[in-house]
UniProtKB/TrEMBL annotation:
It comes from Frondihabitans australicus. Homodimer. Substrate binds at residues 15, 79, 89-90, 175, 208, 232-233, 242-243. InterPro entries: DAP_epimerase_AS, DAP_epimerase_DapF. Belongs to the diaminopimelate epimerase family. This is Diaminopimelate epimerase.
Length: 302
C-alpha cells in the first residue's frame, strides 16, 4: 500500500539526508522505499534516510532505553542503498536540528541531548552555531589492540582505488572505517572513487574508506589539519562523512605518534568539521562538531 511521507531534506557539510518523523514506527520502511526516497532522480535524493522514531517503539530501542532512559528518540539511519548503519556523525547533527525544528525535543546551551543509535546512546550538545556529538569510545579493529595510541600493532588492510593501492588502518567509531594515507593533494584529487575501493582482506560487513593527506603544516596552533575524501559503505562517494572524519583524525594521530594533537580540523569536499579526543572514566572518547542545515520539506508517496 502506498503511503505519503512528509519529509525534510537536510545536510551537514554536504552529506545529505531525507528525514521524516514516525514516532510510533508505523511506516514499513523497506529497503525499496529507502532507495526510492534516496533516489536523486526519481525521489528526494540523499546519501541516507533517517527516520525519527521513539526508542520505545523500535526493537533496537529497548537496549537504548536500558542504557539511558533519557534517550527518547532513536535515529533510525539507513544508507541510500537500503542497508542499515550503526551510526552517522553528520546525520546525528542534522537529526538533532530536525527534532528541534519539529518541536519534538528541546536543547539549551550547556544541556545534553541523548539520542539512540544502533551504536548505542550518543550525547549531542549545541556548539558554536552547530552541534557537537560524543561518538564514544573508538578502537582499532585488531582483537589484540589495547587502545593505546602509538602501540604500533594496528591492523592493516590493503585498499585499492585506482591508480593507488596502499595499506590502510582499520578502526571503529561505532561503524567501520579504513583510513588510507596518500602523499599529496594531487594524489587525493586523482583517485577514482566512482566505485568502492577494493579492500584486502575484505571486512565481513564492509567499511567506509577514507583517503587523507596532511595540510601544510600538519599542526597549526596546536590543532592537527588534514584533508579527506571518502567512499561510504552503502552510499558511494559523499561530500563528507562525520564518523569518517573522526576515524581519519584518529588514524593520522596514530601514525604521527607521541606528541600529536588531540584536536583536529578535517577538510572535506563539502566543508570542514572538527574532531577532538578526550579522556573519560571508561577510556578515550572522540567527538565531532560541525554544522547542520534543513533545506526544504515536501510530501512524497512511497
Ligand atoms: N555519513 C555518515 C556515515 C553513514 C553510515 C556509513 N555509510 C556506514 O555504512 O557506516 C557519517 O557522517 O558518519
Amino acid at each position: 500500500m502506498t503511503e505519503t511521507v512528509r519529509f525534510t531534506k537536510g545536510q551537514g557539510t554536504g552529506n545529505d539526508f531525507v528525514l521524516f518523523s514516525d514516532p510510533d514506527a508505523l511506516v514499513d520502511l523497506t529497503p525499496e522505499r529507502i532507495r526510492a526516497l534516496a533516489d536523486r532522480r526519481f525521489g528526494v535524493g540523499g546519501d541516507g534516510v533517517i527516520r525519527a522514531a521513539r526508542s520505545a517503539n523500535l526493537p533496537e530501542g529497548q537496549t537504548i532505553l536500558a542504557e539511558d532512559p533519557a534517550a527518547e528518540w532513536f535515529m533510525d539511519y539507513h544508507n541510500a542503498d537500503g542497508s542499515v548503519a550503526e551510526m552517522c556523525g553528520n546525520g546525528i547533527r542534522v537529526f538533532t536540528k530536525f527534532l528541534l525544528e519539529q518541536g519534538l525535543t528541546t536543547l539549551e546551551p550547556g544541556e545534553t541531548l541523548a539520542i539512540g543509535t544502533r551504536a548505542g546512546v550518543r550525547d549531542v550538545q549545541l556548539n558554536r552555531g552547530g552541534y557537537q556529538v560524543d561518538l564514544g569510545r573508538w578502537r582499532l579493529e585488531a582483537p589484540d589492540f589495547d587502545g593505546t595510541v602509538g602501540d604500533g600493532s594496528g591492523p592493516e588492510v590493503t585498499a585499492t582505488a585506482l591508480p593507488v593501492s596502499r595499506p590502510g588502518l582499520s578502526l571503529s567509531v561505532g561503524n567501520p572505517h579504513v583510513v588510507v594515507a596518500l602523499a599529496s593533494a594531487d594524489e587525493l584529487a586523482a583517485i577514482d572513487l566512482g566505485s568502492a575501493p577494493v579492500l584486502d582482506p575484505a571486512p565481513v560487513d564492509g567499511a567506509n574508506v577514507e583517503f587523507v593527506v596532511p595540510e601544510e603544516p600538519l599542526v597549526a596552533d596546536g590543532v592537527g589539519r588534514i584533508r579527506m575524501r571518502v567512499h561510504e559503505r552503502g552510499s558511494g562517494e559523499t561530500l563528507s562523512c562525520g564518523t569518517g572524519a573522526a576515524a581519519a583524525a584518529l588514524a593520522t594521530r596514530y601514525w604521527a605518534g607521541q606528541g600529536a594533537p588531540d584536536q583536529w580540523r578535517v577538510d572535506v569536499p563539502g566543508g570542514t568539521v572538527h574532531v577532538r579526543m578526550f579522556a573519560t572514566e571508561d577510556g578515550e572518547h572522540v567527538s565531532l562538531s560541525g554544522p547542520a542545515e534543513l533545506v526544504f520539506t515536501g510530501d512524497l508517496a512511497i
